[in-house]
Amino acid sequence: MTASFPRHHRSLLGALGLAAFLLLWELALRSGLLPGSLVPLPSAIPWVLAAEITDGIWLEVVTASLAHYSVGLLLGSLLGIAVGVAAALLPAVDALHAWLARLLRPIPPLAWIPFAIIWFGINPSAAAFIISIGVFWINYFASYSAVRSVDPGFDEVARAFGQGGFLARLAKVSLPAAAPGILGGLRAGLGQGWMTVVAAELFGIPGIGQRMMEASSLLATDIVVVYMLTIAGLYAVFDLLFMMLQHRLLRWQP
Question: Where in the numbering of this chain does the ABC transmembrane type-1 domain appear (predicted)?
Fold first, then answer.
């Protein structure tokens, strides 16, 4: 049987693991096991970050990325949930778009970059479009599965209490019962959006991705690592805030 750790012990072990990884990284570079010209010293990263912030570059690129990340996340999430719920509840909608979903789902968001450039030009709207595609499918399948897994007996109870209309059952039965699954899809979409945002900016749209591309072309790997960690930090903040919201919305759960 696996022994369980208290939460503070797990946090301590996690911090120790991270510290050990950084220490080994630092020692490997200083001893010459890793090429210092291609891999930055961990101890140098805070100074590079401070320089980026002082020069105003960090805030500029992060603000730009947050703008089209937020738009893409909002559009992809709303459309994904709406289409997923509709397909789960309405057999005609499900049948109408089933083959279309199977055709489009395997296509990665980055494959839409040529169309994004043609339709929107090289501007933030193109990046938001690409981000929204990746977020859409996660929310679509999460919502579809969550609604389809709702116990049919709930609908029978709703009808018995005079709530037989479609909108009434949607608002009082389907969405509340499927809320954990739908919120799980939203949370996964938060991470998918950040995974896509860098690639969406690589073709010239201002933001974190463009800054990373500029730095990599100059072999400034320390700057690349700074923005890799920036993405990780931003995702951690968004995820924490969403978990707090999720806990509040699902406080009725046992």
Answer: 62-246
